[in-house]
Design goal:
By secondary structure, the chain is an alpha+beta fold. It is about 25% helix and about 25% strand. β2 and β3 form a beta hairpin. InterPro entries: DUF3579 (IPR021969).
């Protein structure tokens, strides 16, 4: 269960039984479907980029989709669609937050 205070949810491409979810481009497909759900709503051409609220990525070699809580506030049915996709396919879900890449500090 996702806590209401979670800011980001990571849907991981690993099933409950530990198998890699297929097809291999599932994260890009899911994020593509969600592309119209964005700040300011859909605009001409917005289908050509991912929504900042539903971003495909890879973490440690595992395909993931990072879903931001702002999607839930914007359109609860869109949020439910993404969460039901994960549940229906037995995908692992984790509450987390992204840490921006920071270049290492120079050595003295």
């Amino acid at each position: 269960m996702i806590s209401p205070s979670a800011k980001e949810v990571f849907i991981q491409g690993i099933t409950a039984d530990g198998r890699t979810f297929r097809p291999s481009d599932w994260a890009e497909r899911l994020a593509g479907v969600m592309s119209p759900f964005r700040p300011g709503g859909a605009t001409p051409g917005s289908h050509l980029s991912y929504s900042p609220w539903c971003v495909p990525t890879s973490i440690g070699g595992v395909k993931c989709v990072i879903v931001h809580a702002d999607l839930r506030e914007h359109d609860v049915m869109a949020w439910d669609f993404v969460m039901n996709f994960a549940r229906d396919n037995g995908l692992q879900i984790a509450e987390a937050c992204r840490v921006p890449d920071v270049p290492p500090a120079p050595l003295p």
